[in-house]
Design goal:
Layout: H1 2-38, H2 63-74, E1 77-82, E2 85-90, H3 93-102, H4 114-117, H5 133-145, H6 149-154, H7 156-171, E3 178-179, H8 180-197, H9 204-218, H10 223-226, H11 231-261, H12 271-281, H13 290-321, H14 323-337, H15 352-364, E4 374-375, E5 380-382, E6 385-387, E7 392-395, H16 397-401, H17 445-462, E8 463-466, E9 493-498
Parallel strand pairs: 2-7
Antiparallel strand pairs: 1-2, 3-9, 4-7, 5-6, 8-9
Helix pairs in contact: 7-8, 7-17, 8-13, 9-11, 13-15, 13-17, 14-15
Bound molecules: protoporphyrin IX containing FE.
Pfam families: p450
Family: Belongs to the cytochrome P450 family.
Keywords: Heme, Iron, Membrane, Metal-binding, Monooxygenase, Oxidoreductase, Transmembrane, Transmembrane helix
Length: 503
C-alpha cells in the first residue's frame, strides 16, 4: 500500500503536467488557427490549418503548378499561410502591375531567408540584399561595368569561341545520340565564368560543379524559411550549406587573390578587376569587402549560366516537338547565314522568327517560374484587400504566361503570336515577365539574349535533329524538375545529322 502511494504521487504530478501541456498546445493551435482565419480583409484563400497553415496544399507537385490550381479556385490575388509566414500569390497581369508598378517601392524588398543567408554572404549579393543603398551600389556597378550593351558586345569573341567548341563536339557524335543538356550548361557557364573572372580559369570546372551542387540543395521550400522564429531550424539550415559554401568560398578567394597578384599588363579587365578597383578607390564607408565581391560574382555566374542554358534546352525540346516550327527556323537561319557559311553574331538581329521562338519558350518555360520572392515594406491595399508589412509576395509568372484569358491556345507552342507586335520581356508587359519587373527586374537581359540566340542559331544552322530510338516527336518527355530554376527533369538527348550547307 505504502509502495502504491509512493508510486502514485510522482506519476500524478507528471500526469497533471502532461495534461496541462496538451491543453497548452491545443490552446496555441486554436489561437493560431483562429487568428489566421479571422482577419476579414485579407485576400481570399483556403482555410489554414494550425501550425502548417496551407503547406499541405503544396505537397505533391511543383509549387508553381499547385499555386496555379489554387489560384484557379481563389482568384489572382490569394492569401496563403505557409508555415508561420503570410504570403500573397499573384496570378494575373493586373495584380502583377499593381505590385511591380503602382506599389513598386513598397514591394522592392526581398525576404531575409535563412536558406539564402549563408550562400549569399549574409545577403550581400544583388539578388537577396535588402532594398537600400548597398543594393543600389552593387547593382549599379554590375549594370554599368558588365551588363551594358557595349560591354556585352565586348564578350562576342568569348561566346563565339565557346560555340565553336560546342559545334565541334556535337559534330563528332554525328548520327549518335548526344546529351545536349550536358553540353549546353557547361558552355553557358563557361561564358559567364570568362566574363566574370577572365580567361579560362583553372578553377572554372570545380567552381561550376560546386555551384551546381549548391543550387540542388537550394531547390524547394526550406523549413527554416517557413518557420523563421525557430532558432533550431535556422542552425540546421546553416549547417546544411556550410560545407559546400566553404568550398565555394575557397575557390572564389583564390580567384580574387590571383587577380590581385597579376601584373597590370596581362589584364583584359573582367568583373573581378572592376570590383577590386572599386574596392581600392572608394572611401571606407562605401568600400566593398572581399565577401561582398564574392557574393556578387556568384550572382553573375549563376544568373549568367543557369537561366540562359535552360532556355536553350527548352527551346530545342519545343522545336523537336514542333517540326513545322523547326523547319521554319532552320530555313531562316540558313537563309541569313547561307552566304557566309558560318554563324556569328553580326546577323543575329535578322533572325526575327528565332527571336519569337525564344519569347515563346520564355512564356511557357520561364527559368524562374515564381520570379524571386519579394516582401512588402509597409502595409498597403491592393484591390481593396489589406496587405500588411512583411508579407511575402510570390508572383507566378509561369501561370500568368499560360493564362487562357490573355493568351489564345495558351498551352500550345506558337512563336507566331510574337510576330508583328511589340510584346516584350523588358518589364512593360505584365502578361509576359520571365525577367520580372519594377526596379528589381533582372539586370542581365542584355547579357542573356546572345547566350540564347547564338547557340540556338548554331544548332539549327549546322544540324538536322531527330529523337533516339525511333521515338515520335510528340513523345518527347517535357516533365519539369523541381529546383531553383525550371530545368527539364530528364536530360535532352538528340541525334544530330550534319547539314550540308549550300554555298
Ligand atoms: C534567360 C535568362 C534570365 C532570366 C529568365 C532571369 C530571370 C530573373 C528574374 C525573374 C529575376 C527576379 C526579378 C524580380 O524580382 O522581378 C532576376 C533577377 C536577377 N538576375 Fe536574372 N535572369 C536571367 C539572366 C541573368 C543574367 C545573364 C544575369 C547576369 C549576368 C542575371 C542577373 C540577375 C541579378 C543580379 C538579379 C537580381 C536583381 C535584383 O534583385 O535587383 N540574370 N533574374
Amino acid at each position: 500500500m505504502v509502495m502504491d502511494v509512493h508510486h502514485y504521487h510522482p506519476f500524478s504530478v507528471y500526469f497533471i503536467a502532461s495534461i496541462l501541456f496538451v491543453f497548452f498546445i491545443l490552446y496555441k493551435l486554436v489561437q493560431s488557427w483562429s487568428s489566421s482565419n479571422s482577419s476579414s480583409n485579407l485576400p481570399p484563400g483556403p482555410t489554414t490549418l494550425p501550425l502548417i497553415g496551407n503547406l499541405h496544399q503544396l505537397v505533391g507537385s511543383l509549387p508553381h503548378h499547385s499555386l496555379k490550381l489554387l489560384a484557379d479556385k481563389y482568384g489572382p490575388l490569394m492569401h496563403l499561410k505557409l508555415g508561420e509566414v503570410s504570403n500573397i500569390i499573384v496570378t494575373s497581369p493586373d495584380i502583377a502591375q499593381e505590385v511591380l508598378k503602382t506599389h513598386d517601392v513598397n514591394f522592392s524588398d526581398r525576404p531575409n531567408l535563412a536558406s539564402a543567408r549563408t550562400v549569399s554572404y549574409n545577403n550581400t549579393n544583388i539578388v537577396f540584399s535588402p532594398y537600400g543603398e548597398y543594393w543600389r551600389q552593387v547593382r549599379k556597378i554590375c549594370t554599368v561595368e558588365l551588363l551594358t550593351t557595349k560591354r556585352v558586345q565586348s564578350f562576342q569573341s568569348i561566346r563565339e569561341e565557346e560555340m565553336v567548341e560546342l559545334v565541334k563536339k556535337i559534330a563528332a557524335s554525328e548520327g549518335c545520340a548526344v546529351n545536349l543538356t550536358q553540353n549546353i550548361f557547361p558552355m553557358t557557364y563557361g561564358i559567364a565564368a570568362r566574363a566574370a573572372f577572365g580567361k579560362k580559369s583553372r578553377y572554372q570546372q570545380v567552381f561550376i560543379s560546386k555551384i551546381e551542387e549548391q543550387l540542388k540543395l537550394m531547390g524547394g521550400f526550406s523549413l527554416a524559411d517557413l518557420y523563421p522564429s525557430s532558432r533550431v531550424l535556422e542552425i540546421a539550415e546553416r549547417v546544411k550549406f556550410e560545407k559546400i559554401h566553404k568550398e565555394i568560398d575557397r575557390v572564389l578567394q583564390d580567384i580574387i587573390d590571383e587577380h590581385r597578384n597579376r601584373s597590370e599588363c596581362e589584364v583584359v579587365e573582367d568583373l573581378v578587376d572592376v570590383l577590386l578597383k572599386y574596392q581600392q578607390e572608394n572611401d571606407s564607408e562605401s568600400v566593398l569587402t572581399d565577401d561582398n565581391i564574392k557574393a556578387v560574382i556568384q550572382d553573375i555566374f549563376v544568373g549568367g549560366g543557369e537561366t540562359s542554358s535552360s532556355v536553350v534546352e527548352w527551346g530545342m525540346s519545343e522545336l523537336i516537338r514542333n517540326p513545322r516550327v523547326m523547319e521554319k527556323a532552320q530555313a531562316e537561319v540558313r537563309r541569313v547565314y547561307g552566304k557566309k557559311g558560318y554563324v556569328d553574331e553580326t546577323e543575329l538581329q535578322k533572325l526575327i522568327y528565332l527571336k519569337s521562338i525564344i519569347k515563346e519558350t520564355l512564356r511557357l518555360h520561364p527559368p524562374a517560374p515564381l520570379l524571386a520572392p519579394r516582401e512588402s515594406r509597409e502595409r498597403c491595399e491592393i484591390n481593396g484587400y489589406e496587405i500588411s508589412s512583411k508579407t511575402r509576395v510570390i508572383i507566378n509568372a509561369w501561370a500568368i504566361g499560360r493564362n487562357a484569358e490573355y493568351w489564345t491556345e495558351a498551352e500550345s507552342f506558337k512563336p507566331e503570336r510574337f510576330l508583328n507586335n511589340c510584346i516584350d520581356f523588358k518589364g512593360a508587359d505584365f502578361a509576359f515577365m520571365p525577367f520580372g519587373g519594377g526596379r528589381r527586374i533582372c539586370p542581365g537581359i542584355t547579357f542573356a539574349i546572345p547566350n540564347i540566340e547564338l547557340p540556338l542559331a548554331q544548332l539549327l544552322y549546322h544540324f538536322d535533329w531527330k529523337l533516339p530510338n525511333n521515338m515520335k516527336n510528340e513523345e518527347l518527355d517535357m516533365t519539369e524538375s523541381g529546383g531553383i530554376t525550371l530545368r527539364r527533369k530528364n536530360d535532352l538527348c538528340l541525334i544530330p545529322i550534319t547539314h550540308q550547307t549550300q554555298m
